[in-house]
Task: inverse folding
């Protein structure tokens, strides 16, 4: 297998035009390639500046998970810190987790940040929402977002051999001069994201969430959501 390491957008476009298979940190695809056969050529963005940005509202797809720190919002920092082992975080990338993984541990954090994506096709770079990225799986260059007022994250302890652990991400933003709470949940392999105004107190916010898909979650998951919502609203009120 030929691994190509472009250093510019035109070089990366050429790799895609030549049919190279995108690869992140290879923590997920390597076993599948060993089983099913390696592609003739693969492309990694680890040498591209556009895919290695970190901070100031943007996170590159080639950034290794262990490098994600307090330069990004708390919800994203804590999500990255809770993925796998230290060895995994030193190898796995943002793009591999968002696009190449079924677990998508970073996705709830990206959803509550209202993140959008910069992606690359053979025709050139363009912007896309996360739904398009998940559906079409283009080559992700970076994520970018507007900074929230506060954010929070909770990953429930996982049972050995069981489904992926419950994840609840929260963030408070200001939209049109009004505070808005965003909540994203990973329940098993399913993801949901909702938003409600949050200027009327925790009880009203929880009632509003109860009328969304959040209200259909199992009781244990709803309790974790309630705890996280109350906590992030208390922190927002202190700002």
Result:
């Amino acid at each position: 297998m030929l691994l190509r390491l472009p250093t510019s957008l035109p070089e990366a476009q050429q790799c895609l035009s030549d049919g190279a298979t995108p690869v992140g940190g290879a923590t997920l695809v390597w076993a599948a390639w060993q089983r099913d056969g390696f592609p003739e050529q693969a492309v990694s963005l680890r040498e591209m500046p556009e895919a290695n940005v970190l901070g100031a509202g943007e996170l590159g797809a080639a950034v290794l998970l262990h490098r994600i720190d307090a330069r990004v919002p708390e919800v994203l920092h804590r999500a990255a810190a809770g993925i796998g082992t230290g060895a995994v975080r030193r190898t796995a990338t943002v793009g591999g987790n968002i696009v190449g993984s079924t677990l998508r541990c970073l996705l709830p954090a990206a959803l509550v940040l209202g993140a959008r994506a910069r992606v690359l096709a053979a025709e050139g770079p363009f912007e896309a929402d996360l739904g398009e990225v998940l559906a079409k799986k283009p080559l992700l260059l970076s994520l970018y977002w507007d900074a929230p007022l506060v954010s929070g994250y909770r990953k429930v302890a996982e049972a050995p051999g069981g489904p992926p652990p419950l994840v609840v991400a929260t963030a408070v933003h200001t939209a049109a001069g009004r505070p808005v709470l965003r909540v994203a949940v990973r329940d098993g392999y399913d993801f949901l994201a909702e938003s409600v105004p949050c200027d009327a107190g925790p009880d009203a916010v929880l009632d509003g969430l109860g009328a969304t898909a959040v209200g259909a979650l199992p009781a244990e998951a709803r309790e974790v959501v309630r705890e996280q919502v109350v906590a992030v609203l208390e922190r927002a009120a202190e700002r």
In short: The first helix runs from residue 9 to 17. The first strand starts at residue 2 and ends at 4.
